[in-house]
Specification:
D-Maltodextrin-Binding Protein, domain 2, 6-stranded mixed sheet, about 325 residues, alpha/beta, 12 helices
Length: about 325
């Protein structure tokens, strides 16, 4: 007799179970309910900005809402990251997360305004962004081997530019210094623009920079591209060898850009964004454009991206420690 009331409740309980189980799907269906913003922590024109603006229109088609790109430069991407974390965790405000912000700065800054591992939800790695090693066109070297030999003849006389202390370009130079056994001097700038201007003028000798923002100068003869800092040659520049081919071992300072959300963003929303970004990256016109800029599309799952981030952070942590890099 006592079982009867419980038996009468079973249909309602079953219905409730079905409703609860459908909640993630409902969250994905309800998203997006307004325009989506992708925050870029750097000035317009850089590789992260270029990638975000390339995928945004196609992503908007897939999501059925506008996708706006908003630049929030400063503090190595931390200003944009903090702004994203200050918005509701509903997927409508995303971050173009980068190597410097999530993998390098935790080892350089005394304190971070957020915890990259606890506060950030990885959505998808969008691209790998290998560096190109470029030198001033008047420097008497035409290969990495010649550059290394020249640097050994003139210890402490060759300098290399970067867009700031602790950036991927800076640490790529420190990695070359360590792996090749040469003494070169770092010159930090507050952005790639001024660094490139001084490199062309001969005020500095070399730089590690992404092809999307530097190959135009090499093609114009203002700079000389010696190598790509990647495990393999880039499809867009098949005649340019890798640094490793020149005999520098274990040289892989490949940076990346990805899409991140705030923690507590519904998993179904994260998965929806990842699927739509992956579809965009698979479009021939998008993948060809990225390849032409020396970028490699990825489109990984949130789980794959999280595992990648853990390994990437360890890699850059070793470089920071070996070079004893400190924040300025």
């Amino acid at each position: 007799m006592k079982l009867q009331p419980l038996l009468k409740l079973l249909p309602a309980l079953a219905a409730g179970t079905v409703w609860l189980g459908a909640t993630p799907a409902w969250a994905a269906d309800a998203f997006p309910s307004k325009p989506v913003k992708i925050l870029v922590g750097f000035s317009p024109g850089g590789s992260n900005d270029v990638v975000a603006r390339l995928i945004a229109p196609k992503l908007a088609e897939g999501l059925g809402q506008q996708v706006l790109v908003e630049n929030r430069p400063g503090a190595g991407g931390n200003i944009a990251a903090s702004a994203m974390l200050g918005a509701p965790a509903d997927g409508h405000t995303l971050l173009m997360c980068t190597t410097g912000t999530l993998s390098i700065q935790p080892y350089i800054l005394k304190s971070m305004p957020f915890d990259p591992e606890k506060d950030i939800a990885p959505v998808t790695q969008v691209v790998n962004a290998p560096y190109m090693l470029l030198v001033n066109s008047t420097l008497p070297v035409k290969s990495v081997k010649e550059l290394v030999a020249y640097a050994k003849q003139k210890p402490g006389e060759i300098n290399f530019a970067s867009s700031g202390t602790g950036t991927g370009g800076h640490l790529a130079g420190e990695m070359l210094k360590s792996r090749a056994g040469i003494d070169i001097v770092h010159v930090a700038y507050k952005g790639t623009g001024q660094a490139m201007t001084d490199l062309i003028a001969g005020q500095v000798s070399m730089i590690f920079d992404q092809p999307v923002s530097s190959m135009q100068y090499a093609r114009a003869g203002k700079l000389r591209a010696l190598a790509v800092a990647s495990p393999r040659r880039l499809a867009a520049f098949p005649d340019i060898p890798t640094v490793t081919e020149a005999g520098v071992p274990d040289f892989d300072p490949v940076t990346w850009a990805g899409i991140c959300a705030a923690k507590n963003t519904p998993p179904a929303v994260v998965e929806r964004i990842q699927r739509e970004v992956a579809k965009v990256l698979a479009m021939p016109e998008i993948s060809k454009r990225l390849a032409a800029d020396g970028l490699e599309p990825v489109g990984s799952t949130p789980e794959q991206f999280r595992a990648f981030l853990a390994a990437d952070k360890r890699k850059w942590g070793r470089v920071v420690k070996d070079a004893d890099v400190k924040a300025e």
